[in-house]
Design a protein that fits this description.
GPCR-Ligand_Int; mainly alpha; two-stranded antiparallel sheet; 76% helix; disordered N terminus
Length: 345
């Protein structure tokens, strides 16, 4: 799994040493700084998503959206915990001593990231259907079916990751030029390697599909809302149309905000994932392992930032979320009354 050189740590099978523009010292400092920021984001993500989980668990579970958002918060909480664990291995010496552990933890991050992406796609598609076919959506999407879909996403993504934990074996190798050994994680045989490659491909395709669904559903939702807002302004009185337009604008702003945060955070992930599927050698053991490690180190930060930012979206856009949170924090009754009056808007 690893190849030790005088400059630093490389994955097995790499032909390249450190690039001319990324030497060993720069790469090691990148790992340390990236790990520190990753740990900070992970810690904030744990705190914020714990609050999200508590709030949504207190909200009505008869609403399909609340069920999906609760599941999303749980997935983002799990991802934040994993990011915090990954930050503990940012020091190259720890990476060297616990390489198999870091490898296994990184797959846990992939698991929660893919679950979060699929749940975001489901929520966005469900919101579009609510606007495009409001009379049918209550029959098509019920709380029971939403629970079933959430369960399927969790089980399917977990199943796609499990094979990777049985595809490799731990071995001890001698570090050249020293009297030390290190633990590595190598493929057991060709069949195990193919099994791992299949898991990688499935998870990469799942991310690309989820990203496409989020992007397309959001664009369709915005277009549909604008068309309906224009139609309402033509068939209702000016005062009513102003009220309806204000509501539509609020929904549009919320969807755009959610879409922008997700797309900006995951676009580099999607590009890197597409490169893994199309560029030979761009993987953890390929010829471009250093570029791969730097790229994915940055994408982990963006994914963590996406999970951390969700609480601010809920606070700004969801009056019900804010009302439950304020009740938990025991704010005064006048503030709660104003928030409760706004939950119908």
């Amino acid at each position: 799994m690893a190849n030790i050189t005088e400059e630093g740590l490389l994955w097995t099978g790499t032909k390249d040493t450190f690039s001319a523009w990324v030497d060993a010292e720069v790469f090691n400092w990148f790992l340390i700084v990236n790990g520190f920021i990753l740990g900070l984001i992970g810690l904030l993500g744990i705190i914020f998503n714990s609050v999200n989980v508590i709030v949504y668990s207190k909200m009505s579970q008869g609403d399909s959206v609340n069920i999906a958002l609760l599941a999303l918060c749980l997935a983002e909480l799990g991802g934040s915990v994993v990011l915090l664990l990954m930050s503990c291995f940012s020091v190259p010496e720890l990476t060297l001593n616990y390489l198999p552990v870091e490898y296994l933890i990184s797959w846990l991050h992939i698991l929660f990231s893919r679950i979060s992406s699929c749940l975001t796609a489901f929520v966005t598609l469900e919101r579009y259907m609510c606007v495009a076919m409001p009379l049918k959506v209550k029959v098509l999407i019920t709380s029971r079916r939403t629970t079933a879909m959430v369960s399927i996403i969790f089980v399917a993504m977990t199943t796609s990751v499990v094979p990777t934990y049985f595809a490799r074996k731990i071995e001890s190798v001698m570090i050249p030029g020293t009297n030390r050994t290190m633990l590595t994680f190598t493929s057991m045989d060709a069949s195990s390697k193919n099994m791992e490659n299949t898991s990688v491909t499935v998870n990469n395709v799942a991310l690309l599909l989820a990203f496409a669904v989020v992007f397309i559903s959001t664009m369709l939702l915005v277009i549909t809302l604008r068309k309906k807002s224009k139609w309402r302004s033509e068939v209702t009185s000016s005062s009513q149309s102003d009220v309806m337009s204000a509501r539509d604008k609020k929904v549009i702003k919320m969807i755009i905000l959610i879409a922008v945060i997700f797309i900006v955070s995951y676009l580099p992930v999607v590009v890197s994932t597409a490169a893994m599927l199309s560029v030979p050698g761009y993987n953890v053991e390929g010829d471009y392992t250093i570029i791969f490690s730097i790229t994915w180190g940055i994408t982990f930060l963006l994914e963590g930032a996406n999970a951390t930012a969700s609480i601010f979206v809920y606070l700004k856009m969801s009056s019900r979320y804010k009302c439950v949170l304020m009740t938990m924090l025991k704010f005064n009754s006048s503030v709660l009354t104003r928030l409760q009056n706004r939950t119908m808007v």
